Amino acid sequence: MDSSAFDLTPVQQDIRARARLFGEKWAPRAAEIDRADSAPIAEMVQHSVELGLAGLTIPTQYGGRGLTAIEFSLAVEEACRAMKSWMAGDILFATTCTGPSVIMISDNKAAHERYLPMIASGEKTAAIALSEPKHGSAVTDIETSAYLDGDELVINGEKRFITGAPDYDVYVTFVRLNGTPGMKGIGAVVIEKGTPGFTLGEGPEYMGSRGSSHGELYFKDCRIPASNLLLGEGSFPTLMQAFNMERLYIASMCLGLAQGAFDEAVAYSHEREQFGQPINEFQAVYHLIAEMWTQIESVRYLTYKAALTAANGKFPNALDVSVAKLHAADMARDVCWKAMQVLGGNGLVTGFPPERCFRDVIVSSIAGGTIQVLKNTIAAQLLGKRLNQRR
Ligand SMILES: Cc1cc2nc3c(=O)[nH]c(=O)nc-3n(C[C@H](O)[C@H](O)[C@H](O)COP(=O)(O)OP(=O)(O)OC[C@H]3O[C@@H](n4cnc5c(N)ncnc54)[C@H](O)[C@@H]3O)c2cc1C
Which of 167, 279, 324, 352 is deepest in the core (most CB within 10 A)? Predict the structure, then answer.
């Protein structure tokens, strides 16, 4: 069943079809990737390049597709729906989402020229590094420092839970510049794997988002060219604007995973018979299908709306995208659980698609901003004032 209310352009239909091919190709390996907590990332990125799904929002002058947030959202939704795994979204994340967005929002043309072509071509994958051992939600407290020494920046500090580490190649990293305290001191730099003084560590094994690594970054007197500064002091609001792509990504992923779990539940409800009839002829199951579809459709509207608010097609509006992510993660958890119920005992078997989608969407409630922090963002926009979060 497809949503009929949206009149997609030929390009959007084409992107969606390509994303479906991508997800379908990897779907047979989803359970194995989940079980091993390891994925053939390079092979998957290469496949996304062949299908024209890399660098979706990167301008064509740098070898990207020059598309907008809505096409990215559609691609993530459809790839996750078809593969029924977070991993499908993560591959698109690596060449389009937050890392490339921070590079693009910077006015550092030399960084555009150096990094965007290699990311758009899939030659290099890009991670985004904000979180630190002591500072997760409190991004404005980060301690990883950068100071200028001649024509170099010297970086010291630690990051953790970084999606793609240690596998990805380019790390767009939030830093505190020149010791300036608070939000004002935060900027971003881009650092390449292999730079002396920069080492990578394995992260934890999560219940969901398996196959994708979430490792650690260590900087010890790591020297990078000063020209790798993407955004300087005072640019926190601009960085957060680019970060809204991450929220859109997670909303789109939850939408696709919920839809994937729903598809499984519908198919199973036709095949499975109890008491001599298909289970979807029991009104309780019949109604579960209606409830799931209604929930999915409500999030589809919110997610597409958020994508369409994107300034220049790139960075969605904070209020709309926070609402979409908050509701998407909540909806997807509930829809996946309903799908598991439709499958009965099979719904609880580890590695069956609804169970895998369930674990992935729970992780999505924390990654990219927790439920509570999203509510703070939403209320702050609505009331025009921020809570005093500091005692
Ligand atoms: C799968 C996964 C992938 C990730 N990928 C990345 C990545 O690529 N890059 C990156 O930088 N980070 C990444 N993260 C880290 C993620 O962004 C953080 O886990 C998240 O921001 C929460 O930070 P924390 O874990 O330190 O929790 P904390 O900030 O310590 O929060 C703990 C609890 O306190 C609550 N809380 C904290 N502050 C407030 C407040 N002001 N108001 C109300 N409640 C509050 C939180 O909601 C939460 O319930 C990833 C995490 C996961 C799980």
Answer: 324
